Amino acid sequence: MKEIIKDLNWRYATKKFDSTKKVSQEDLDTLLEATRLSASSYGLQPYHIFVVENSSLRERLKPHSWNQSQITDASHLIIFSNRNSFGEELVDNYLENVMETRGLSSDAIKGYSEFMKSKLMGLSDDDKSNWTSKQTYIALGNLMTVAASLKIDTCAMEGFEAEKYDEILGLENQNLSTTVVLAVGYRSRSDETQHLPKVRHSKEKLFTHL
Asked: Residues 69-89: pLDDT tens digits?
């Protein structure tokens, strides 16, 4: 069996973290770099990610997270937030980076700029927010896979009050909304969930080959 499949079988949604164990700075840097390198639509990455280690801040977030222990016991809490809306600056800022990184002229990327804007600028604010929130899940999945390869435990969480998170993190004035939260650390020996067989659809049920 390929090593990555073994890693994915090893991982599970960790319910109890060992609060005495911390992810090393080196491993954290690897996780964050993998997240930075994640795919996103058009390469625009219309989101911002908060890496929370501060214990007092996490205690404030916990009551708005159904009092789940992962919020405070995990080594780090990674909060994904999406842009609520955007204008042409989203594309323009990205293409400035493209020109600088690849040594291209504005003429060389003009067609791509017009194409992206034609697809994105006509969206309603609700559609823009829906689209940007979906992008965060691509980065989330990549982070979780890399964490499994490093034998670092994770638990993706949607059980929280997004408006309260936005208020505590001051996102309301940053055109951002909390999308999903990832607890990162090491499983507690007392977490019985780790011993349960993994339940997934069979290949026959999940896939259709055409």
From this structure: 999 999 999 999 999 999 999
